[in-house]
Amino acid sequence: MELTTAEENYLKAIYHLSDGGKKSVSTNDIAAEIRTKPASVSDMLRKLGEKEVIQYRKYYGLQITPLGMRLALQTIRKHRLWEVFLVDKLQFAWDEVHEVAEQLEHIQSPLLIERLDAYLNYPKFDPHGDPIPDAFGDVRSRPRIALNEMGIDQSGQIVAVKDSSPEFLRYLDKVGAYIGARIKVLDKVEFDGSIEILVDQKKNLFMSKEVAKNILILTL
Amino acid sequence: MELTTAEENYLKAIYHLSDGGKKSVSTNDIAAEIRTKPASVSDMLRKLGEKEVIQYRKYYGLQITPLGMRLALQTIRKHRLWEVFLVDKLQFAWDEVHEVAEQLEHIQSPLLIERLDAYLNYPKFDPHGDPIPDAFGDVRSRPRIALNEMGIDQSGQIVAVKDSSPEFLRYLDKVGAYIGARIKVLDKVEFDGSIEILVDQKKNLFMSKEVAKNILILTL
DNA sequence: AAATTAAATTAGAGTTATCTAAAAAATAAA
DNA sequence: TTTATTTTTTAGATAACTCTAATTTAATTT
Fold this sequence. Notes:
Two copies of one chain form a homodimer.
Chain A: H1 5-17, H2 27-34, H3 38-50, E1 54-57, E2 61-64, H4 66-88, H5 97-104, H6 110-119, E3 145-146, E4 155-161, H7 166-175, E5 182-188, E6 195-199, E7 203-207, H8 209-212, E8 215-219
Antiparallel strand pairs in A: 1-2, 3-8, 4-5, 4-8, 5-6, 6-7
Helix pairs in contact in A: 1-2, 1-4, 2-3, 4-5
Chain A binds a DNA duplex through helix 3.
């Protein structure tokens, strides 16, 4: 089964929006994610249906097939491995990698990915803390909750971010919140959901709910 | 100036076939090189002419413009840097790199290429001995002649190969002819142009003219 | 110089992916 | 439960790249 670059991008978007096949996804959602028009999405869904990577009944909705799942995970694996390469080997900052990885993920060469994986020492997570599927598509995911859902005095470790936009990542750099940091919730403001945390037992950090929602924590 | 992947491939082919803008190139030659039909080439030449990367007068021929030269060299630079990466870092054999580099060369990211170049320690030649243009498109080319053009008793060093097909490169691996090897011409057969050489002062090697033509030597 | 052959180009059509505008179906509201 | 709204799909165009078949131009041969 061979997918075009566009098809891979749609499938990846569907995988992400459906949270790995769990939630249902709308045509409009996909259009927004891919930054295209709903009409284009409809057309592509028909094609993806014909290729049997999704099961599609028009007006009703879609479901990723096991084949589609496998292919989506393959693309995600490639994307995240390239991100690790860019950060670990080429000194990219974590907010600079997405766009380039978006291109690199479409390179077709199983040998290349095998070798890259080995060269990087079989990393389990990308620079944003997202798990890298192995060659069989298996994902070692850690149970994690958004920072805004933690209670006062609860402790944990930042393991990933939900939003990977350069704007958000640069903000985190600025305030010193990085993946791996130990944190403890000091206070929560009921009114607006903002939160105060202690980072690495030495630095107080105050942030809005909007920010906290995009920081994922492994609780201790 | 932005070129599509297809345009980059055509421009690269034109650059190679014209020997860097020296020789004239025919529509048929380009079609053969790109493995496409002459009709497609005509169409593309018109487009490349409009984009002013070549000067094109139909039925007469074409000439690369300085702009086209710069863009072609940029693509070649990327191709060869990726080849070095694949061989030096990912343990690819020199006959396995071409196809993958053909894809990687189209990744658009100036930062990526800068960083890759630095990471590889600013290599001057790719695994086949071809010079890598620097960021300004300057090429440090060495004067070199084909092995079949050398005279008896002449010595030199293998610096590059003309043919980069897996078949040819694997043959060279098998007989122990590698880039960097010191060689000396022991005998030449007038009848068929075949040649006998001494490799690294210890190994005798007999080869056809067809093979010798594709081995490039830096004479001492 | 006319006729033949070879090379290059145009015409017309197909594929992939996109769009706008219009129509159809499903959902929400009155 | 009819009406209104939102969502989704189809219809028809466009752009990039390719092809086959037909035509035009250039080069060769007689």
